[in-house]
Amino acid sequence: MSSEALAVTRVPDAVYEALRESILSQREAPGSAITEQAVAERFGVARPTAKVALERLVADGLLRREAHKTARVPELTRDDIVDLYANRAIVEEAALRTLAADGVVPMAAIAAQRMLTDAATAAHSAAPGAAVPSAIARADIAFHRALVEAQRSPRLARLHALLMGEIELCIGQVLGHRLMAIDDVVTQHQGILDAVAAGDPERAGSLTRAHIEGARDRLLARYDSQLADTAPTED
Which of 5, 163, 201, 149 is nearest to 84 (CA)? Predict the structure, then answer.
């Protein structure tokens, strides 16, 4: 069986990163089982290496595994989505207000925005119906992480990090299913950066909340639509 190529030098890190990208890009659909044996065969590594990668993904919240059970990609419920986005909005709005009060835009956020813009440009030239490039989800996630990590409170950054695994699952679904136009994401991100640079905490906070809640509403609409499609019909 042929194994996928790994681009990172340390093999456990490479397996982790490849699986993480596969989950975020929706190649591993919610509910999919991921076993140590399958990972070992897929990447041509030993089972202990596969186990390390899976355990990291479980710790991040990108996989769930009950005792003595196979790891699976989480299937978030409607309540999960509502709760995640509510807490995300609280943390990120507070972080952006603090960051804007200092008026300093972190270089890591600027770099992530540039990466997102480049990925969006590449996506526009792709064939119709092509999958959304995984670089878009990576850049979006990096942007939000960079902004929160750059504000003054390490405790707020830790709270955000605790949420990020499941938040990343949501971001992957929003972008993977094209629930938001990539150009809109780029524009909204730039508005947040501009508010931070202008030292406007009120605007930075409100734009951040609007950005998050807009994504939440689109994801919930898709969830409700899928639920309606699978509901039994009366004769």
Answer: 163
